[in-house]
Specification:
The chain is α+β, with helices and mostly antiparallel strands and 141 residues long. It has a domain of 87 residues. The chain is built from four helices and five strands, in the order ββααβααββ. A hairpin with a 2-residue loop joins β1 and β2. α2 packs across α4.
C-alpha cells in the first residue's frame, strides 16, 4: 500500500466554518538533506514525483479552505535519526508536493505552521502527515 488516509474532523466550529484535520501515512521516507543536496537534479525531481503519486492516492481533492493558513505536522519514522537541518531540508520535496496538489497555499511562514519530528522504527519506515486548516461548507445544527 502506498498510503492511507484518516479524516479526523476537528473540534473547533464557528458558524459555517470548521477546523479539519487529515492524517496520511505514506511509505516514502524523507531522505537526508545532505544526500539530496549532492544528488543529481533528476533524482530530486523523481523524489518529488514519488511524493506526488503517493499523496494523490492517499489524499482526496483538497476542500475549499476558509483561510490560507495550514498546520502541517510531519513525523518521519526511520532506521536512523537525522540532524534537524537534514530532516527539514529533506522534507522540502514533500512540502512542495503538497503545495502542488493544492493542500498548501504556500510554504512561507505566514501561510504554514510547520512542525517536523522523527522517531526510530527499523522495521516499518514511513512518513505520517497531519494537515489542518479551517474549511467552509460545514453547517452547525
Amino acid at each position: 500500500m502506498v498510503g492511507s488516509i484518516f479524516n479526523q474532523g476537528g473540534s473547533m466550529e464557528q458558524g459555517t466554518k470548521k477546523f479539519e484535520k487529515w492524517i496520511v501515512v505514506i511509505r516514502v521516507k524523507i531522505e537526508s538533506g545532505n544526500k539530496l543536496l549532492r544528488a543529481h537534479w533528476g533524482v530530486r525531481r523523481d523524489l518529488k514525483e514519488k511524493y506526488i503519486k503517493a499523496l494523490r492516492v492517499a489524499l482526496p481533492t483538497p476542500p475549499t479552505f476558509a483561510s490560507r493558513l495550514r498546520h502541517l505536522d510531519i513525523i518521519s519514522y526511520r532506521k536512523r535519526l537525522l540532524d534537524k537541518d537534514n530532516l527539514y531540508t529533506g522534507a522540502k520535496f514533500l512540502i512542495d508536493a503538497l503545495k502542488e496538489l493544492g493542500w498548501l497555499y504556500d510554504d512561507a511562514p505566514q501561510y504554514l505552521n510547520l512542525h517536523i519530528t522523527q522517531k526510530v522504527d527499523t522495521k516499518n519506515p514511513r512518513t505520517l502527515i497531519r494537515i489542518g486548516g479551517e474549511v467552509y461548507g460545514f453547517q452547525v445544527d
